[in-house]
Amino acid sequence: MLTVPAFTWSRPTSVEAVLAEIAGTSRDDVLLVAGGTDAVPNLKHRLHEPRRIVHLAGVRELRETREDEHGLHLGALVRLSQIAGDARIQRDYPAVARAASLVASPQIRNMGTIGGNLCLDTRCTYYNQTFFWREALGFCLKKSGTRCHVVTQGKRCVAAHSSDVAPVLIALGAQVEIANAAARRTIAVEDFFVGDGVHNNVLESGDLVTRILLPAASRGRRMAYQKLRPRAAIDFPMLSVAVAGSLDADGAIEALTVVVGALGARPRTVGQLDAIVRGQAPGEPVWEAVAQAAHKQCRPLTNVPYDPDWRHDMVPVFVRRALRDAFARPA
Ligand SMILES: Cc1cc2nc3c(=O)[nH]c(=O)nc-3n(C[C@H](O)[C@H](O)[C@H](O)COP(=O)(O)OP(=O)(O)OC[C@H]3O[C@@H](n4cnc5c(N)ncnc54)[C@H](O)[C@@H]3O)c2cc1C
Ligand code: SF4
């Protein structure tokens, strides 16, 4: 049986109380827990060994959603099942609802939150294992060791960020609000991630994600999400593709963003698409060119337990599928 390590526990009821509790602590000492669907298994595997757990479930502000001229604000504790089932999100941001609906299983979506999904720890074949397993092989850069088993000469962890919702948020230009005891700041979700699998986001100790903004400007854009996973009933993505775009008054492509997830420590935005798509008629020739650009720019690794060459071959397949989905409805 896997047990959790010893820790103290608190359940503050306001953002200010959370921030006061975590101010001045070190990132390894305190673990924030929202739904706990990722944090608790990681505790059992001794991947996190905090002295203290701060359970966010009692903070009402973090559960709130509201809409204004800037867009739809989702509190960090809004549950994935709520997002998947919300008629307004299904209508205005269908790819967000779709991505949330594809996370794990119904039970996990009922507990898992949008904030936890964004801050999800990176995953790796050599990391998401029991203490016994990792000790037998030799620990790695991400936890207690000095080498990487994926890129053996590598100095950086390349564990995969496997959040389903994050690639869609990036494609839509969503923003995230981060609070600490001194101030609140808002940044683009794209700038939230960094390319180091040990800590793959910009959160410092003392920081709390408070809400996510789905921008008004992205409402009703062409968008889609596609996920490759071993079992449709419950599994992390081994590859994911989010697309968002728009057409001009003549029906030509005005803008297109393609984000590929679950490959490395941060979702990857496919570069230099403007030259391929701008002013073109949406359709198979353009989708093929975009799919090939994504294939060229993406390099799956052995960080998840599925053949990287096969995952690489699947990149253009899933990009094409996502583009067809997104632009299927008439202009
Ligand atoms: C069997 C299984 C299958 C899964 N499949 C998928 C899948 O297909 N796709 C997918 O995306 N995820 C999957 N997950 C992971 C997880 O369930 C989801 O990502 C979920 O959204 C995490 O949310 P949570 O509220 O449970 O996060 P928690 O587990 O509570 O926290 C996750 C991380 O985020 C941090 N955190 C949480 N809230 C905040 C906040 N407000 N501010 C700062 N840091 C915060 C925590 O400290 C922790 O490091 C799976 C998990 C399991 C157990
Ligand atoms: S990518 Fe390397 S350092 Fe990172 S978790 Fe995997 S084995 Fe460890």
Characterization of the model:
With 331 residues, this protein is α+β, with helices and mostly antiparallel strands. It has helices at 15-22, 39-44, 80-85, 87-92, 94-101, 106-111, 114-118, 131-137, 165-171, 189-192, 274-277, 284-297, 308-326, and strands at residues 8-10, 30-33, 52-55, 65-68, 71-75, 175-179, 184-188, 208-215, 222-228, 239-247, 253-261, 268-269. Helix 12 runs antiparallel to helix 13 (308-326). The longest helix has 19 residues, at 308-326. The radius of gyration is 20 Å and the shape is globular. Iron/sulfur cluster binds next to loops.
- Poorly predicted segments: none
Name the beta content range. 15-25%
Widest sheet, order of strands: 4-5-8-6-7
Structural class, judged by helices and strands?
Answer: alpha+beta
Which ligands appear in the coordinates? flavin-adenine dinucleotide, iron/sulfur cluster
N-to-C SSE string, H for helix and E for strand:
EHEHEEEHHHHHHHEEHEEEEEHHH
Summarize the structure.
This protein is of the alpha+beta class.
